[in-house]
Amino acid sequence: MKGRRRSRSTTLTLAFALIAGLGATVPATAEPSYPFRDPSLSVDRRVDDLLARLTLPEKISLLHQHQPAIPRLGIRSFRTGTEALHGVAWLGETTVFPQAVGLASAWDPELMERVGSAVGDETRGFQQERPDGWGLNLWAPVVNLLRDPRWGRNEEGYSEDPTLTGALSTAYGKGLTGGDPDHLKTAPTLKHYLANNNEWHRTTTSSELRPRVAKEYDEAAFRPAIEADAATGVMSSYNLVNGRPATVNPDLNDVVRTWTDRDLLNVTDAFAPANLPGDQRYYPTLAEGDAAALKAGIDSFTDNSADSGPTVGAINSALQQGLLEEADVDTAVSHILSVRVRLGEFDPGGGRYGGIDKSVINSPKHRKLAREAATEGAVLLKNQANTLPLKPSRKDVAVVGPLADTLYTDWYSGTLPYAVTPADGIAAKLGTAVTTSEGVDRITLRDAATGKYVTAGTGTAGGALKESAEEPTAQAQFDVFDWGHGVLTLRSAANGRYVGYNWSNFVNDQIQPGGWFAQQQFKLEQQPDGTHLLRYAGYETEEPWWSNPVYLGPTGPDGTLGLVPKEQAAHYTKNVVRSGLDEAVAAVKGRDTAVVVVGSNPSINGREAHDRTDMALAPAQEALVRAVRKANPNTVVIVENSYPTTLGALQKEVPALLWTSHAGQETGNALADLLYGDANPSGRLTQTWYRSETDLPSILDYDIIKSDRTYQYFKGRPLYPFGHGLSYTTFRYGELRRVTDGYQVKVTNTGTRAGDEVVQLYVHQRVSRDEQPLKQLKAFQRVSLKPGETRTVRLKLTPSDLAHWDVTRSKWAVETGTYDVLVGASSSDIRTSTTWQVRGETIPPRDLSRVTRAENFDDYDATRLVDESKVRGTAVEATADGAWLRFKDTRLAPSITRLTARVAGTSPGTVELRLGSPTGPLAGTAHTAGTGSPYTYETVTADLSAAAKGRTDVYLVLSEGLRLSTFSLS
Questions:
Q1: Could you give the CA distance from residue 341 to residue 347 in angstroms, rounded to a whole number?
Q2: Could you tell me which of 141, 280, 564, 678 has the fewest CB atoms within 10 Å of its CB?
C-alpha cells in the first residue's frame, strides 16, 4: 500500500498509549472528547484512534456488508451498497435520471457532475430515516467498457472507450462525493473490477487480458476516477481474470491502490465470496476463500444478504488456522473506517452533509435536471431532408407503438415519482390530445381439445389463468407484445395487468414485466396443424431448476393453468380479436405526422444475468414501422432502448430516427422538446452500432486488438460510428493548430439554430513496433454556439497521452514518430487534421536473455491465459498441440546457447523454440514429463542450435495442456 498506511503499526502504538492515558473506564456511550470524534484531527489520526478501541470480534464484524452497531462507542450500524447508477434505487420514489448509457451519450462531464451531485443529495435525503437498504457507500458508477453491445448489462455502462468512460465516471463520482475527498457526501464504488462484459456463465468464464489490453483498455477505464479521488474503492467482479476469480485478484492491492494515496474501501459483488468454494471451486472452504480475498485487497464481504454469520465464522476460522493474522483484519478495517470518518459519521451533527433531509428528493430542481439530462442524451441518428424538427402548427399527430404511452424502468432504477410518456410529452407540447395506439395484437387462446378459452382475473389483483370461458369475453383477451427472439408478454384485457408466474400459478397482476426473474415471458410456438403451444420463458436459464423447455396446460379440475412438459402442453387456437397493425395504420392515416416509438423492455431484452443473442428490433415492431410508414410518409421513428440495435432496412426506409435510452421520468417532455425544435439534438453515440452480429466475434473474446473490436480496431463499415450524432444546425471547423498543452480549433455554427457540437480529438500512430488503434479518442469538448457564433475550442493532448504499454519491458512507452491528430464530429466524420512529430523513444529489440514472462508475447494461437498460482501471476496454457507464442524482433546474440523455461502440466510435453514462424527452423526442444499439477512448476532446458542468432522473431511452440510462466535464453 502507498503513503501513510505504511506506518500503521507505529501509529497504532501511539493510539494505544493515548487510550492508556485516558484511563480504562469506557462510558456506555461515546463522548465527544474521543479523538475519532474530533473533526479537527486528521483522518489518519481519527481512524487509528477508533481502530485501537475496537476488540477483535468487533473488527471482524465490520468486514461484512451489514456492519453492526457498536453501542459502547456510540457507533451506529453501517451498510455498504446503495445502488445509484442513475438515481437512488430500491428505496422508493426518487428522481429517475436516464440510464447510464443515456447519461453518457450527452458527452457532458459538467452535466454528469450535476447529476451525480443530485443523486448524492437524494442519498443523503434518506439519512434521517435510514430505510432498509440505505447507506452512504454507493455502488456506482459502472465503468466496465461496453466492448460488446450484446452484453446484458450494456445499459449500466458508459461507453466502449476508456477516455470517455474515465472522464464521465470521474465527473459523476465528483458529484457523488461532493468534491472534497476528506468530507464525503457519499462514497462511490466503481463496478466491476475487472473485464466484466458477459453474463453467460459469468461466475465461471475467464476474461483473458493480455497485458496491453489490460493496461491500455480495461484498467484505463477504472484509473481516472480513483486518481482524481472521485471514487472511494472498487467492487470486484464475478468473472475470472486470466483464470483467477476477480474476488481474489491481487491487482486490488497491487494495482488499484497504487493509483491513489487515500484509503480505498474495496467490496465483493453480492454472493461472490461463496462462489470461491462454490461453482468456481477455487478454494475448498469459505475460510480459505475469504482469507485469500482479504489478502488480495477486499475489505468488505457481500455475502448471505444480511446474515453476517458465515463471513464472521469464516474469518475466525482463517485466523485460527493461521491463514490470516490480526494485522490483515486491521488493514481492511482501517480502510472501512477511513471512509466512514470521511463521510462525517463521527462528526457533530453528521458533518458537512448531515443536515440534508428528504426535501431534496425529486425536488423541482432535480426534475428540471432530469429533463435536461434526457434531452442532452438523445441522439439524432438520421434526419433526411430536414424531416425534423416538426412544425408545432401541424397538431394532428398520432403517436403509436408499444412504447408510445408507457415508460419502462430497469433493474437498478428507482421508483418513478411520475411518468411523462412520449404521447404525454407531445400532447403537452401541442396543447391538444394526440391519437395513440400501441400497435399490438389482441388475441384469444382456445384449447383445441376442450373448446375452452384461457381467462384471467379482474381487479388489480387479477387471478389465476384458467381454461374456463365458452365465449371470447374480455377476460379471455390478451394484448401480445413482441420483444424479439420469439419472446412476448401477455397483458390481460380484463384489468390491464401483465401475466406472470408467481411460482405457483400464472396470474395477471403485474403493472409491468420486472423482478430479478422476469416471470412474464412467454413464447407462442406454432405447430404443423396450425395450433400453438404456449411456452413459459420467464426462467429459462443455462442451468435451470427444472428441465427446459416447459409449457402451459390445465393442471387441475377447474382448468387452472400450470407448468407441464411439452408432451402434455395444451394446443391452442390463436384468434386475433384486434390487429395491432390495422389499428396503428388507422390511427396514422391522414394525420400531419406519425411518431412511432419502438424499442426494448429492459427487463427482457438483455439485462443482468442475460446477454442478448439477437441485436435486431423485434419483428412485430419492425413490421409496425413499415406499415405506419406506408400509411403516412410523414413518419418519425423513436428507438427507445439500452444498446445499439441492428436496424437493418429500416435505417434506409424511414426519414428520421431518434434514439434515446430508457430516459426516466421526463422522457416524454425531452422527446417532445427535441421533435419540435425547442431543443436541438446534441447527443452522440458512445458505442459502435454494427450492421450485424456477424461483425462481432464471440462475446467471450476480450482481446480487442486481435479480434478487431470497438471503433479502435474495427475495420468494417458500421451502421453508425462511435461519436455519431446529428444536429438541426451545421458546424464548420477551422484549421487545427498546436498550442502549449494540446490543440485548438475554431468551430463556427453555420446554421440558423443555436446548437451544441461535441468536438472530438482522435490520434493515430502511423508507425509503431506494435499494432496500434485505427483511431483513439484522446480529448473531447462539448461547446454551445449561437447561429453564426465562432469559438476556439482547446483540446488537451501531451506526449504522455500517446503512450502505449511496451510488453518487451513492461512499461509505458511513447515512441518517436509521426502521429495523426484528427478532430471532428465523430470517429468517422473528421473535419480537420494535422500531423505531430513526437520525440519519444525507440523500443529496442527484445532481450530474451532476461527472464521473460510468457504473457508478454506479441501474438499467439491456440493458447489461453491462466493463473500461474492461486495468489498471483499469469501463465500461458496451450489449448492444442502446436500452440504458439510470438516474440517479435528479438536480438539473439551469438553466445545464446540454451533455452530455460518454467513449465507445469499433468502430462508430458515439449517447448520448441522456432525462428521466423511457428513452422520455421527448429532451434531447440525442452521436454517435461509432467509435474502432476497445473500449479506445480519445474525448470526445463534445451540446448539451442547455431541457427539461434541474429535479429528475428522467436516462436515458442507448445504441447497441448502445457503451462508456461517464464523463460529465458542464456
A1: 8
A2: 678
